[in-house]
Amino acid sequence: MKMWTVLLLVCAMTTLTYGAAVPEVELVGEEGGPSIQEAAPEEEPDEMAGGFVPASTALNSTSAHRSVYPTNLKEDLDEMAGGLFIQEAALEEESDEMPDGPSIHESNRLMSRGFPFCPSGWSRHNGRCFIYISSPMTWAQAERHCQDLGGNLASVHSHVEYVFVQNMISRITQGFQFAWIGGSDAVEEGTWFWSDGTPFTFAHWDAGQPDNQANSDCMLMNFGDAKKFDDQPCDFEKPFVCAMNM
């Protein structure tokens, strides 16, 4: 009897709490032992009284949130990755449109770390950077200036390279101006070397040169009608060409 009373109280509390009808209760006699069988409602009401949400609905809603969240996260990550790809492509395109490159000091730092481009104002050819300096200097002053820029007076190792340097000068000066380059035989007359230490294997002397006139121990380019090498006194002041490795 006490058990039935407790069960009836539970049903009453459930009705008051959830605002739903009291389910049918089937009582079983003592032979089968007391039990309660709740009859499930045939269909759910359209509106939940008192704001009650069935457990199955809540679970379904939670599952939906759990399934949507990873999908949204993946979409956000994909969108971020796409944005980064677009930014990277834009930076690459911008760098292609900047042939002058960074400053000389920044370029020297980057080139020492393996970045293959030339500083602003320099021209690239065959793994080296070249620049024409229009301020006249003696050969020794020009060599020191090139060293301050990270290179030496230019060495020339082929006819193709010589034509490249000529064309660089021509674009700047609208002509084939005289210019010091890195050849010298000041150490031993008749034995020419490049100031950057590379082998002297290319000779492009003008006719009758070198003649060592007035102790001419330093190399000038664009000499004579043929615009070739000439030896000149090293204390003459001329424009010059610097070169440095990339």
Automatic annotation (TrEMBL):
Boundaries of every C-type lectin domain copy: 125-243
- The organism sits in which domain of life? Eukaryota
Keyword Nucleus belongs to the record: no
List the SUPFAM superfamilies hit by this protein, alphabetically.
C-type lectin-like (SSF56436)
Keyword annotations of the record = Signal
Pfam families registered for this protein in UniProt: Lectin_C
Which N-terminal stretch is annotated as signal sequence? Answer: 1-19
Q: Does the keyword rRNA processing apply?
A: no
Q: What is this protein called?
A: Type-2 ice-structuring protein-like isoform X3
Organism phylogeny: Eukaryota, Metazoa, Chordata, Craniata, Vertebrata
